[in-house]
N5-carboxyaminoimidazole ribonucleotide synthase (Gracilimonas halophila), 772 residues
Amino acid sequence: MPLSSLPAKLKLGFLGAGQLARMSSLQAFRFGIQVAVFSDRSENEPVQFMTPFSTSGSFESVDDMVEFAKGCDVITLENEFISSDILKEVQEKSGTPIYPSPDSFALIENKLIEKQTFEAAGIPVTPYKLVKNESELEDFGKTHGWPFMLKSSKGGYDGYGNVTVKNIEDAKQAFSKLGGNNGEDILAEAFVDFTKELAVQVARNETGTVVYPCCETVQEDHICVAVLSPAPVEKIIQEMAQELAFKATEAIDGKGIFAYEFFLTKEGSLILNESAPRPHNSGHYTIEGTVTSQFENHVRAVLGLPLGSTRLNKPAVAMINLLGTHKRPAEADQITEALETEHGHLHVYGKVDSKVGRKMAHYTLLGDDLEETYKKATHVTREIEI
Amino acid sequence: MPLSSLPAKLKLGFLGAGQLARMSSLQAFRFGIQVAVFSDRSENEPVQFMTPFSTSGSFESVDDMVEFAKGCDVITLENEFISSDILKEVQEKSGTPIYPSPDSFALIENKLIEKQTFEAAGIPVTPYKLVKNESELEDFGKTHGWPFMLKSSKGGYDGYGNVTVKNIEDAKQAFSKLGGNNGEDILAEAFVDFTKELAVQVARNETGTVVYPCCETVQEDHICVAVLSPAPVEKIIQEMAQELAFKATEAIDGKGIFAYEFFLTKEGSLILNESAPRPHNSGHYTIEGTVTSQFENHVRAVLGLPLGSTRLNKPAVAMINLLGTHKRPAEADQITEALETEHGHLHVYGKVDSKVGRKMAHYTLLGDDLEETYKKATHVTREIEI
């Protein structure tokens, strides 16, 4: 049922306590909602510094999570680490609804089922095959060419669980490393010769669906370093991506916030690469960049509130991921230039320790021209050490 | 010293745990800063639901607050309930700096000293007199006319501590009620025949000063019901108000965020009515209405970070205070229309109990035309029960 009121002490529970739950929590607080958090680490998780209602336990223990869920009005996810079976059991035993629903999540947690689900909905996906042994690895290479990707069907995070293989020796080693010899389902995925990676976020619940602008995710070594919105591609491509993202969310009957990453091929077609049933790094720019952020629509969606406008606040938005530059106690240093820049917004995630390449913070700059805005955002953050 | 870095676990302590500290905390969290809160109530204060670092004690106990302050890197205020003498002692004994400084606060906590300070800086203030007895009350009425205001020099909050007196009988009664017979300093203040009430926020620290647009505060029965920005007055009046607010902040050597309320007289002159050394209800519209909110500049200012732009994000902003409509457990009801309105932003303060007239929430609408925006904001919030 759509919610038309916000009662005192309404409590939103997050399974996971990292920066995504943190940014959603900030929005929950704006609505006067209380936040409870369940983490598999006992301390120093970003959200644990933001609420008195913090629990730790195992993401594999139904009992731990049932206890937690009973104290909450609605549960939501910030990662894909908990299996849909466990989520379903937690929901049934606690009586507390979980959104996105375990049924939706079941359609995307396994990369094989995910691809089948989206293909069935008419959404182009990367050419793939479930590979069982050396000869199938070899066949895939012959058909689609080397290199290709091997992925654990159980998914991963930020490229973990994915391996690029250049030849059959590589492929055998990766197959084994990913657990292929121990019964894990391993997918081979053809390399797509793409010109850009695009992303679209979608919020959906019983009150409707809203689709964010199509943005570009700029990657270096498979890590997203920047996001540009709107994506510097033709309008028709943007709209195609938005349409596919809309269809994908329908296909899994999603309630919550979802993100979809696409390859734009040289021929100008779009292929769905990945999906995520949660706020996504590609949508951090929406905090200041759009009328309603992905985090606000996350909270609205899972509570059944009407969804907010996804319109851009300025013609151009650039978001720079500030990745750890040192292994040390976290410290955002040399931030003066970024803070002094008009329309620039710094977000630091409150992590206690920095590691090289770890997502520690981000910086969003709004402007009128995309290229200039990106250039300036890069420039004013270039000396930040974090 | 200006701060150029944000170290992990930097802790900002708030003396006071209401909605103002809450909204500043939300910004502190965005910078990865931890929030600790000291309240004179042991539970159910808005910020207490937002941090594991919550302490309660007395605002009159130096010891209670020293203990709290020792655990923080910087202390700031959300109210005017603690005397500057006590703040100074807390600062000295804990070694933790307090901003705005006790010295700045000493210049405005007492309404008599406040008026003298601002007069000395060339800022027009409401005609006033320290009244000591019945005959001085009578004299004031003769000189400035009835009715006039009696105010406890120790100040108040939302009109508490202020009494309008219509004749000498009223005046004697109020004088006694406010403690005039027990040695309290009581100020008589002439009624100013004003056409509008205006407000300006200023953030200032060692890196510079930024001044917000001049806004209008719309009052009903001495309670602010709406804020319109920019104020619908001539540009020259707006600039005069901004200039006076700038000068007032210089006069108290303020470090932090400050708000000033002015009367605009029929003759087009400005008179400073009140000042506040903290985020202020008149500046809530800045959360979405300006590039950098008063809460972000509050956090930046007290930490010594460079201050952010105060430019409006859209030509017109209207903020509606959502005051309690019932005495009941808090619940924001009938909010659908407000949430569905593009560029509308609902903020609920997380209070547990509602009382008629209590500040429970606010709603900000951005638009292109001030009158239309105000009309629409009023319209879409008209049925909210809270």
Remarks:
- DSSP finds twelve helices and 21 strands in chain B.
